[in-house]
UniProtKB/TrEMBL annotation:
Name of the gene this protein is made from: ffh
Alphabetized UniProt keyword annotations: Cytoplasm, GTP-binding, Hydrolase, Nucleotide-binding, Ribonucleoprotein, RNA-binding, Signal recognition particle
EC numbers on record: 3.6.5.4
Superkingdom classification of source: Bacteria
Record GO terms (molecular function): 7S RNA binding; GTP binding; GTPase activity
GO cellular component assignments: plasma membrane; signal recognition particle
Binding residue positions for GTP: 107-114, 190-194, 248-251
Organism name: Roseiarcus fermentans
Written domain comment of the UniProt record: Composed of three domains: the N-terminal N domain, which is responsible for interactions with the ribosome, the central G domain, which binds GTP, and the C-terminal M domain, which binds the RNA and the signal sequence of the RNC.
UniProt protein name: Signal recognition particle protein
Catalytic activities: GTP + H2O = GDP + phosphate + H(+)
Length: 444
């Protein structure tokens, strides 16, 4: 999902030139793209404006961490700003009130209210061990109450018996009374929707709210909602008073604009995501995860974070110098393997690179896993300094000793030596004419 937004943002990266600190010019160029991308992703104009302003201020003059490209740095800053707008913490449904706790679901027709009611009920019953009663207050749509009853049976949650002819407020009162009498912990109220926001709908919702005193009022909205998201969220928030938002159809190819707009405009947390039609297709909302998905840059953000923590600039410079000279001994290989481990192993590094996720299985079968890295480091650890600097002296007896020391077979030692040889050859090639001098000096 959010393909378009992520594509736009990734397009910015190639254009940045700044080094050291982000220049105003670079940031402005990037922010023009961010702005356009957000608008194309249907984020409301007012939200885009304040988001871009805030992010621009933060980005100008920001230091670029060594070993990270300026473009990657901007992505990190945009990401952090997105997380902030989306709300830092994931927030669960709040049941902290005297039982029965009423939860009211509001939203437009077809947004997924009834489905979401059943999903939430199932979750509260199974995971949180609550006794849940559901009631449909939708008397407009024929069979709406019956639909909820069917879903209730499906997920093993009770629904309020249907009494034809009652109005929504009467049903809400009856649900509350039944819950109180029969010892339910939670009452889930599914309400009627309309095709668009209108006064009669708002009036009905306000009446239900006054009768039911819900502890949570959740707006259920389709993630595909475009510019309407602001009006929708604003109206419900002002007239009914929201405590949170549930975004449905996050399994579709919505672009995330709705999440950003509704959160920014109401200040109310997005609490849950609907990710499919099945009854367990519901997830907690994690702002940072959504920001990652909006950016869609593999996980450049954590790459930057990890690089900032672990990469030692001096060491990187030393390695670059060696590469320039075309010298690469087993100590260097050891250092590189250690660096890989520090950054979360091959899986960690590869997972952070865009487009690699799909290749993971292939990579695993190519033996690039972390156990191999540990074993390789153990092999090098069992060598003397002299052996590490000049692997050519490694003959059968030394190899046997090393293998025993590392707890591996002699073949494993040979494999490592072969791999090192290939890498050293590559370094020599990259090092150009300097490489020969370096190697000669060493041999002589
Ligand atoms: P309501 O009118 O707001 O009560 O909407 P419904 O709960 O009846 O849902 C309308 C349609 O959307 C149904 O076909 C649901 O199966 C579907 N639906 C609801 N939530 C999701 C979701 O998270 N993902 C997908 N793909 N479909 C959903």
């Amino acid at each position: 999902m959010f393909e378009s937004l992520s594509e736009k943002l990734s397009g910015i990266l190639d254009k940045l030139t700044g080094r050291g600190a982000l220049s105003e010019e670079d940031v402005n160029a990037a922010m023009r793209e961010v702005r356009r991308a957000l608008l194309e992703a249907d984020v409301a104009l007012e939200v885009v404006r304040s988001f871009v302003d805030r992010t621009r201020t933060r980005a100008i003059g920001a230091a670029v961490i060594k070993s990270v490209k300026p473009g990657q740095m901007v992505v990190k800053i945009v990401h952090d700003s997105l997380v902030e707008t989306l709300g830092r913490e994931s927030q669960a449904i709040d049941l902290n009130a005297p039982a029965p706790v009423a939860i009211m679901l509001v939203g437009l027709q077809g947004a997924g209210k009834t489905t979401t009611a059943a999903k939430i009920a199932k979750r509260l019953a199974e995971r949180d061990r609550r006794k849940v009663l559901m009631a449909s207050l939708d008397v407009k749509r024929p069979a709406a109450q019956e639909q909820l009853a069917i879903l209730g049976r499906q997920v093993g949650v009770d629904t309020l018996p249907i009494i034809p002819g009652q109005d929504p407020v009467e049903i809400a009162r009856r649900a509350e009374a039944a819950a109180r009498l029969q010892g339910y912990d939670v009452v889930l109220l599914d309400t009627a929707g309309r095709t668009h926001v209108d006064e009669p709908l708002m009036e009905e919702m306000a009446q239900i709210r006054d009768a039911a005193h819900p502890h949570e009022v959740l707006l259920v909205a389709d993630a595909l909602t475009g510019q309407d998201a602001v009006n929708l969220a604003k109206s419900f928030n002002e007239r009914v008073g929201l405590t949170g938002i549930v975004l449905t159809r996050m399994d579709g190819d919505g672009r995330g604009g709705a999440a950003l707009s509704m959160r920014a405009v109401t200040g109310k947390p997005i609490k849950l995501l609907g990710v499919g039609e099945k009854m367990d297709a519901v997830e907690d909302f994690h702002p940072s995860r959504l920001a990652d998905r909006i950016l869609g840059m593999g996980d450049i953000v954590s790459l930057v974070e990890k690089a900032a923590q672990t990469i030692d600039a001096q060491q990187a410079a030393r390695m670059a110098e060696k590469m320039r000279k075309g010298v690469f001994d087993l100590n260097d290989l050891y250092e590189q393997l250690a660096q890989v481990e520090k950054m979360g192993g091959m899986g960690g590094i590869l997972g952070m690179l865009p487009g690699v996720a799909k290749m993971k299985d292939q990579l695993a079968s190519a033996n690039l896993d972390d156990k191999v890295i540990k074993r390789q480091r153990a092999v090098i650890s069992s060598m003397t300094m002299q052996e590490r600097r000049n692997p050519d002296i490694l003959k059968a007896s030394r190899k046997k000793r090393i293998a025993a020391g590392a707890g591996v077979t002699v073949e494993a030692v040979n494999r490592l030596l072969k791999q090192h040889r290939q890498m050293a050859d590559m370094m020599k090639m990259m090092g150009g004419p300097n490489a020969k001098r370096g190697m000669m000096g060493k041999l002589g």
